[in-house]
Amino acid sequence: MGSHRNRKDTKSSHACDPWGNVADSTTAMAKVTAVLEKALRFEPLMPAEARLLLGTTDSAARQDIFAAAQACKQALVGPRATYVVNLNLNFTNICALHCTFCAFRREADAREAYAHSIDAAVEKVVWYRQEYSITEVTIQGGLNPALPVSYYFDLLRALKQTCPDVHLHAYSPQEIDFIQQRSGWTLGRIFDALREAGQGTLCGTAAEILVEPTRHRICPEKISGARWLEIVRAAHRAGTRTTSTMLFGHIESLDDRVAHLDTLRRLQRETGGLTEFIPLPFIAAKSPLGRAVGRREIDDEEVLLVLAVARLFFGCDLMHLQLGWVKRGLALAQRSLLCGADDLGGTLLEEEISNRAGSRFGAYVPAERLAATIAALGLEPVQRTTTYGRVRSWSSASTQVSLLPPPCEELTTSEPRRSATRVSPPGSTKMSSP
Question: Helix, strand or coil for residue 262?
Fold first, then answer.
């Protein structure tokens, strides 16, 4: 982190201070250094300090931020990185909402509209369990009024009865709201019933950006940020842990990003129920919002900066951060492991949502390739459970689950790799309506 300390600055060099004002680069660098040293002592950063780091444009200062985030990650989780072998089960693309960033949804009468029957969904999961040894199914879908409320519970029950060893990472807060609107049940009753049916954890998606004016512009029909927090708190009270996410790189400001991170940190300090944070770079290629912003996407360095600042801002409060490969590719996901991330995400068999939005990186990366991508950095690849238990190491065939230990060790880098493939079980990927 000392790469900038002997750097000669010219009077013409400028950077932004925490309030967005132009400041002398020497002064700005001193502020950045002070914030990084504070983060390395694991002293909680103030939102204004996170704003300072996010507003840093100097390339050398950004490298210092990446190095500090990596040092924090090393101290917290050690010289390893994880991945999960999972299947995405998007059970319907019919949705009553019209989010501007979404290219996945379809109207019920559209040619590409579908809804999986429970029997067909179970058949799919059984096939992937046999062929790919998946340990997790991520289950999400559109808000399809034609599906009865009982579908959400019957689907989990059928999957758990057939594949009891597969973790069901099921539904989003938006879907929980949809269930409550139609059932009239309390949130506590819903989560108790979902857990009884087989739900393991709740997806932390639908967070988008937890700042109301901006959120309302990109998804006015979606639940509010306050409602998202209410549902996630209820899940945590019921003993159901969740992931957390942030959609960024669209129309939000740096202040919006900081406010979102601060909201998640306060939530985690209150409940301790978040398993990880996943920053989601906006894909502009095919969505209505993408057209509105002229197909503009932020560059890779800014993506890594958001990740690194999140690591420093969360500190000891949230241990696991992931920059999944599906948004920006395996090469950038590999770089993220040197900038504060400790997880590559999943194999993402049959990922649809990002690919519909215009992702160019496929719908599946084999577990062996994820492990090799990690090992190329000199890190220990560890296949994990959904809640970050150990399934196996790259060099071990053991499937015994235990908590990941946190030793520390230096990293070495190598050339990144990237690959993705599409696979499908026998038969059509479109299944009959229930």
Answer: helix
State how beta strands 274-281 and 343-346 pair.
Answer: unpaired
Domain boundaries, the chain: 80-403
Structure tokens at 81: 């990185």
pTM of the predicted model, to two decimals? 0.84
Contact status, residue 99 vs residue 221, Cβ threshold 8 Å: yes
Token reading at 143 = 């808000």
pLDDT at 369 over 70: yes
For domain 80-403, the question of CATH label 3.40.50.2020 is answered with no
CB atoms within 10 A of CB 270: 11
- Taking 90 as the threshold, does the pLDDT of residue 37 lie above it? yes
pLDDT digits (tens, 9 = 90+) for 312-329: 999 999 999 999 888 888
How remote is the C-alpha of 231 from its chain's centroid? 18
Cα 79–chain centre separation:
21
Q: What is the pLDDT of residue 429?
A: 40
Residue 286 CB neighbours (<10 A): 16
- CA separation for the pair 387, 84 (Å, rounded): 10
Q: Are strands 80-84 and 380-384 parallel, antiparallel or unpaired?
A: parallel
Bridge-partner residues for 82, per DSSP? 343, 382
For the chain, helix (H) and strand (E) counts, in that order, are: 16, 12
Tokens of 287: 């969505």
Q: CB of 179 within 8 A of CB of 192?
A: no
> Which of the four pLDDT bands, split at 50, 70 and 90, describes residue 17?
very low
pLDDT digits (tens, 9 = 90+) for 81-104: 999 999 999 999 999 888 777 777
Which of 385, 408, 386, 382 has the alpha carbon at shortest distance from 396? 382
Nearest to 279 by CA among 318, 242, 258, 310: 310
Structure tokens at 195: 């857990």
Q: What is the mean pLDDT of residues 359-376?
A: 83
Q: Which residues contact 21 (CB under 8 A, 6 or more apart)?
A: none
Starting from the edge strand earliest in sequence, which strands make up the sheet with 86-90, in order?
86-90, 136-140, 167-170
